[in-house]
Specification:
The protein has 3 helices and 7 strands; from the N terminus they run αβββββαββα. The protein is elongated, with a radius of gyration of 18 Å.
Length: 147
């Protein structure tokens, strides 16, 4: 995490930093990582401006400046079909939502009126006549993203 720029927090981000200092709440966070970009973890404790975080995948415990952490939502919130619906719209949440949908062969995701398409590197049965007809007059983003 060395060398990452310091962030200025206001409003909900400042409240998040205060939550990371509480030992009574389970606080899921994103930890910056040079190899993976972001790793998911749970704050175990804090020592001043440093949080002690257990990484979820490896169970390793790392010490991270609290200002470098970003809040993480529950897994159910990460499978949204429109990124605007994410509780926290920041880099790790966006990447995680796209990764979850990609793993489900859902290669299209909205971000408001913009459609993001990820290359699946395989043929997917996306363009049947029934599917095309159902999206011909969709009238908004209430359906799963598709082109």
């Amino acid at each position: 995490t060395a060398g990452l720029p310091a962030r200025q927090f206001r409003g909900s981000q400042a409240r998040f930093l205060n939550m990371t200092s509480s030992s009574h709440e389970v606080v899921r966070v994103w930890v910056p990582d040079e190899e993976a970009a972001w790793l998911s973890g749970v704050v175990q404790s804090h020592e001043g401006d440093v949080a002690v975080v257990e990484l979820e995948e490896s169970a390793d415990v790392v010490r991270v400046p609290r200002a470098e952490l970003l809040p993480r939502v529950t897994d159910e919130d990460e499978a949204v079909n429109d990124l605007i619906k994410l509780q926290h719209l920041h880099e790790p949440s966006i990447l995680r939502a796209l990764d979850v949908r990609y793993a489900q062969n859902k290669i299209y995701t909205y971000t408001g009126a913009i459609l993001i398409a990820l290359n699946p590197w395989q043929d997917l049965p996306l363009y049947t006549e029934d599917v095309a007809d159902s999206y011909a007059d969709r009238g908004g983003n209430d359906r799963d993203p598709h082109i």
